[in-house]
Amino acid sequence: MKKSIAIVGAGFSGAVIANQLAHAGYAVDVFETRPHVGGNCHSRRDDETGVMLHVYGPHIFHTDNERAWEFVNRFGEFKPYVNRVKAITNGRVYTLPINLLTINQFFGKTLRPAQAAEFLTSLGDKTITTPTTFEDQALRFVGRDLYEAFFKTYTIKQWGLSPSELPASILKRLPVRFNYDDNYFSHKYQGMPADGYTALVERMFDVPGIAVHLSTPFDPASKTDYQHVFYAGPIDAWFGHEEGRLPYRTLDFEVFRDTGDYQGNAVVNYCDDAEPYTRITEHKHFSPWEQHEDTILYKEYSRQCEDQDIPYYPIRLARDKQQLERYVNIARQEANVTFVGRLGTYRYLDMDVTINEALITADKFLASARDNTAM
Ligand code: UDP
């Protein structure tokens, strides 16, 4: 048996690295502060309705990355699932991402694709040549009316900041389409794990040599007990927040149950300020292959993350990135510790990106271990 590895955090980053290293013969100790694996992707069945719950909010797997897709499919069946989001604004229901139906319904038109593209170009603010903020990106490419209806208030509710302070990259996550395709994502592969994300992650950990310690924090001082530590917790927590706390948004969910079908769709966004929440998710629609008489829903509220809250979205304004840079500089001096994942690198990562990066991290570690043995 080779020397042992500590992995801090039992989400996708930790699970992928543990799996790869255990297969290479390492003994791996995984430490997780929460009583379950899966991180914020954790899923479990609701006791009352039997519905598979996305406990920390909705997660839809979508990717163009062949390796990440092939990898996750080794650990369980993925059912076909296409995310189609509805959005309510000014008392009307539309479809997102902005597509031909959204444009035609919103403006009361019957445009064809090329006409709609031309129409949106005419609405865009051409004085904005290189948009860097969320607001400029929206004003440049969809114009003020669509921006104010769908993005401005939702973004203020979601981020607690004006879109003029946020980077364009956040809006670039969403496509604009000039056809009737209302698939929220443009990726080649999209699906939902048949038994939920937690079952998938549990199977990644189910390799001889891996010991998962739930409800067990890891003390950074224990790093000397291990050959190497992969740390997927918040980077600032590893250093005792000595450079201050990196800011996150956290989410609160108001959970309610009903009979039958409450909203007819998995995700309905509330884009204006008639409601304080950003969206309502009806979890049984994330598993359309299952039948449930009753239903469970989450009303999602976003707010600033305080010390004891669960961090969700890294904010990453310029000042936050400077603070991150200070942590990255001290982290560089940390021998034998690799910082991974959304919290370890303070980035807004989709699941497929997290998994692909974790696979690459494991490859690099194994390759350098081989080189050292060869020397
Ligand atoms: N967004 C918005 N209105 C919507 C949906 C999204 O303004 O109806 C903005 C919001 O700022 C959000 C960003 O677009 O943070 C990215 O949306 P995405 O659906 O990728 O957010 P996530 O599901 O990761 O929260």
Largest beta sheet: strand ordering: 8-7-13-14-15-12-16
Q: What would you call the shape?
A: globular
Q: Can you tell me the CATH architecture of the domain at 4-45 and 195-246 and 313-374?
A: 3-Layer(aba) Sandwich
Spell the H/E element sequence: EHEEEEHEEEHHHHHEHEEHEEEEEHEHH
Low-confidence stretches: none
Number of strands: 17
Please write the CATH class name of the domain at 4-45 and 195-246 and 313-374.
Answer: Alpha Beta
CATH superfamily of the domain at 4-45 and 195-246 and 313-374: NAD(P)-binding Rossmann-like Domain
Mind describing the biggest β-sheet?
7 strands, mixed
Enzyme class: isomerase
Protein name: UDP-galactopyranose mutase
GO molecular function: flavin adenine dinucleotide binding; UDP-galactopyranose mutase activity
Cofactor: FAD
Report on the structure:
Its EC number is 5.4.99.9. It comes from Duganella phyllosphaerae. Pfam families: GLF (PF03275), NAD_binding_8 (PF13450). 33% of the residues lie in helices and 22% in strands. It contains 12 helices and 17 strands. The chain has a 7-stranded mixed β-sheet with strand order 8-7-13-14-15-12-16. It has a 5-stranded parallel β-sheet with strand order 10-2-1-11-17. The chain has a 3-stranded antiparallel β-sheet with strand order 5-9-6. Helix 1 packs parallel to helix 8 and helix 1 packs parallel to helix 12. The longest helix is centred in the C-terminal third of the chain and has 24 residues. It is globular. Bound molecules: uridine-5'-diphosphate. The site of uridine-5'-diphosphate has 13 residues, from helix 6 and helix 7.
